[in-house]
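#struct-help
A.M.: can someone run this one for me? Single chain, 403 residues.
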Amino acid sequence: MRLTASRRTVLALSLAMALAGPSAPVFAQEGHGDNKDKKEDKPQAQREQDKHEQQRPRQQAQEQRQPQRQAEQQQRQQQHQEQQARQDRGQQRQQDRAQERAQQENRQAQRQEQQREQRRAGEQRRAEEQGRMHEQRVQEQARVREQQRVQEEQRVVERRTQERHAQEQQRAQERARMERQQRVQEQPARVQPPPPPPLQQQRLSQERQQRLIEQQRERTARYNERLQQQANLAQQRAQLLQQQRRLAQYRFQQDYLEHLRQQQLGLQNLRAYDYGRDPYFYTAPSYRYSRGGRYYDVNQYAADLLRQAVNYGYQEGFRAGQADRQDGWRFDYRNSYAYEDALYGYNGLYVDPTDYEYYFREGFRRGYDDGYYSRYRYGLNSNGTLSIVANILSQILNLRALR
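D.P.: on it. Structure tokens below:
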């Protein structure tokens, strides 16, 4: 507790009087001047004391209020501390919010930077992709140009090859046409009865000869009807070949049909044919062959006609195969009109048309194979004349001598 100045003065005077009590007379004898001073000082001290007495209640009240003031001061300090704490918390919150805003701004800046990096990377990838695509287009264009150049060269080579083959084919067809014309010109002579056989050959009976002549007349009638039917079919095939732009095959078929027309004209000579002078009808069989599980006995004239069927089939098949190869058509000998007709060179005598067709087709399919692949696996070419190899011919006919 702090003492005021007046209170300290009062306490000092009281202490001085207590100490001066026994020696008061001594001090009284010192002179009249000192007493006078004392008299003068006493009222002043009394006044001071009274003043202090008057102030004591106030001081006591002040001392009583001191704890309250201290409590108030403590309360004010506590409030100040709380206010300071609130301010600190507010500042901390502000700092936290500022830091959070800074972090958000930093994250946003990072996201923006990442987005910019992604955009730059995407643009770079697109630029690289466009560059690759451009390079690929350039390479593809170069490849296409190179391929076109190679194809053009191949087309030029193929065109030249086709022209050369066409020229060869035309020459071959011209030779074949001349050969056919020559055969057609010779055909009336062939329709005449062949020379008689040597006397030592066995002759058939008159009854057997008459039966063979009747069979031949029936065979001739069927052959004539067959030629009419094939003529109608040939026109349909010709239109189909033109639609398919198979020009080489079309020319081959027209040549084939021309020969068939000549054959049909030659067939008219059979109406006045002298069967009695033909040695076929009185010559005994000398060969045997089998077809379809049945055996047939024929003489030399019928055997020669069957050999002719195989050879003519090979020749026409070879030309048909060449034509399909020139047209760029697939390997298909069964689709050829000549294979279906199979009567090229047939004179209507000695053998049934079905037998002639069978052996013609056997030669045709082998000739087609050689002609399509430009080889001579089954036949040979002797000075422009095509014929099937002898051993292949023997295997196809399989003729067995009867004696």
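A.M.: thanks! Confidence is low (pLDDT under 50) at residues 23-31, 186-193.
D.P.: also worth noting: The CA atoms of residues 182 and 336 lie 25 Å apart.
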